[in-house]
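A sample follows:
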Amino acid sequence: MREFTEALESSSTSRHAEERGHARNQQLTEIASLLTATFDIDQILSTLMGSALAMAEAEVGALMLLEDGMHAAVTWGLEEDVIRGILLDSGETAPEHVTRSGELFWSPDCQADPRVSRLPSQVSVESLLCVPLRNKGRALGCIVIVNRPSPELPSEDRESLKALAAFATVALENARLHQVALEKQALERELGIARQVQLALLPAGDPDWPGLEWASAYVPMGKVGGDYYDYVKGPGGRMGVVVADVSDKGVPAALFMAATRNMLRHEATQNTDPAVVVRGVNLTLCEDTERFASMFVTMFYGIYEPASHCFRYANAGHCPALWVPAKGSPAWITSEGTVLGQFQDAVYVSGEVTLSQGDLLVLYTDGVTEADSRDQGMFRREGLLATVLECRMLPPRELAGKIVQSVREFSGDCGAADDLTVLVGKVK
């Protein structure tokens, strides 16, 4: 009779454990569905905290995440100062130790546990349970639960809590990747808008000025760059040409470029001295520091006078232009002046050259001279000069295209890292 009774009790215990295990598995399945049904990180964290407390049959806890140091992302009835007040014999707080080691920590009696070296004074911490949160070996933080009513933590409960943590870390990583994808899409849209703005600012075609033929080549290397060029009308039949490079990218840079273009066009109609024009643009940009405080633009601006064949220019921190006379030695032409939009008291000085029939002017951005090669360093001015001298007899449009081709061939598999802008002027 006694053996029969013991057999019944054993069978009942086994059946109870089996039912409890089935219920726990069902609970984990439901929690996993909740965690993976959303990309809202706050909702995932809240679900994780509530589920962990329910599984541990506790009411007080927190989620500590490792993001530029440990911090409490969710707290349920537990202040972060209390958590930081629990020190272990390793000299770390309990969350720091568990996050670093990746090992579950359970102490049913913190007062008597030799591993616990200090407890907070403001709250009685009787028991402590910390479950690590890790994803593919990367530490994310841990679940902290204090004052769990039961003094026991059976192995199946440990495994269930570890499984919960694993589900949560996958859900958090998926949510993070989803957020990254959304941010990337938003950036792609922003860059697409910026590119449309940029292209709308560029001339529809190259002008055929009296006595001077211009041709341009513009090759964008990404969604949007900072290169800008334009042909403008000045007083008394004079004609201006500008090539510039904005320091930033994206929509702010496109707006900065649009502002610069409008300012330059206005100043060009008022003054025949390139230095005065550039100075006016700089002062106006500096006044608008609230919108454009971190941005600046480099610029080379020149004015051609058909009657005298005089080309006057001012350089604001830009690449020097290349002048190749039909007869004589080539020269790099530049003048004193720093970038636009940063220094109100900046000084700009004009320079000038007198052009003759067959002379070439080459204006460009640093995407040309700073193009990189895996074996030969940068293209530099020497590469540009060599290409122009070799192909100087070509029409301006073909010469501009040849310069771009040379840069691409030079860069090879490195590819160009910046926009390429080239303007070639030839005196008729």
About this structure: The chain has two domains: 20-180, 196-427.
